[in-house]
Amino acid sequence: MLKQKQTGSLQVKKELRTGFTTGACAAAASKAAAIVLSTGEKVDSVEITLPAGRRVRFQIHNCHFIDNAAACSVIKDAGDDPDVTNGAEIYSTVSRTNEPVIKIEGGEGVGKVTLPGLGLEIGSPAINPVPRRMITESVAGIIDPQSDNKGVRVVISVPGGKELSGKTLNPRLGIIDGISILGTTGIVIPYSTTAFKACIAKAINVAVSNGNTHLVLTTGARSEAFSQHQIPLPEVAFIQMGDWVGFTLKASARIGVSKVTVCGMIGKLSKIASGHFQTHVSRSKTDMKFLASVASSIGTSSEVIYNISQANTVRHIYEIIPADMATKLFNEICRLAARQSWELVNGAMSIEYLMTDFEGKRLLGRASLDGKENQLK
Known about the structure:
It is a single chain. With about 375 residues, this protein is of the alpha/beta class. The protein has 13 helices and 18 strands. The chain has two domains: about 20-190, 2-Layer Sandwich (CbiD-like); about 195-370, no CATH class. The chain has helices at about 20-40, 130-140, 145-150, 160-165, 170-175, 195-210, 220-230, 245-255, 265-275, 290-295, 300-310, 315-320, 325-345; strands spanning about 1-5, 10-15, 20, 45-50, 55-60, 60-65, 70-75, 90-95, 100-105, 110-115, 150-155, 175, 185-190, 215-220, 240, 260-265, 350-355, 365-370. Strand 4 (about 45-50) and strand 5 form a beta hairpin. The chain starts with a strand and ends in an 8-residue tail after the last strand.
């Protein structure tokens, strides 16, 4: 993604600044703490190797001894990405043990895993495999447990991490009391859709691992809150997919989900009904002519059809469509969305659509298609 900076009459395109993951910061802090513990000397910066092979230097923010252990920290810089952990202080406290291994633990502000499906043991700290490997390699480069038959204990902590976790998907994924130490490349790409899709895939995996074969996919917080009052399923079965409808449907089908209920508002559902599965405004716009054709198919008057085709917003349609035709129109949009979605996943699962109003208070439309019988209801 590019920003543009005006310089006189010349527009200069400026790349958004990349940042570093919590995993990379934890690895750098751990290397610094290992140096301090082994030499007794404080360090200002350290260089580590990211998974892709790139060498990066990190500034060390805090560096001190605590009870025969060394503690160092790095301030996470997410670059130009609006990451909730940007500016968080990632601490690593390193001490020696008698067991000749490098043991990594989670301290204050690092979440604890309570549900299966994350690729981590239940009860373990939410430090993902790649960050664990980075931390281990960074420490082993300074203190080798095999060479002196003494081990290393590494405790990663994030002051304020518990409060930050409330702004993430961690509570929904069963990660409690803190943030996750994440990152597969070590680099944060600004406004990365990859990270969001990875969270969706992980949420699906957690839901299925906990025995849920019926998932509720929602486009936002209001539609999720509405659907939770409509469908009696555990919270883990509700997944906010945002604009990534196609990705989420396909991911659900691949993992063996038997039914999905999609809940959203008229704008996004009408995009899906017309075959657009990436519903962000920059990727697809609401097609008023399409909505007019839907209105025509249910027998709406020519005047109403014309007015819908000329509407400025989908909200305006509420004012245009006669009360006696509204439910028919909304049900038909849901029916078409269900049909498009069923075809997208090649009939792998049952599809249901719910349409709620803009306040997330009322059910406007509903339709379902059985994945086995291919019957709309």
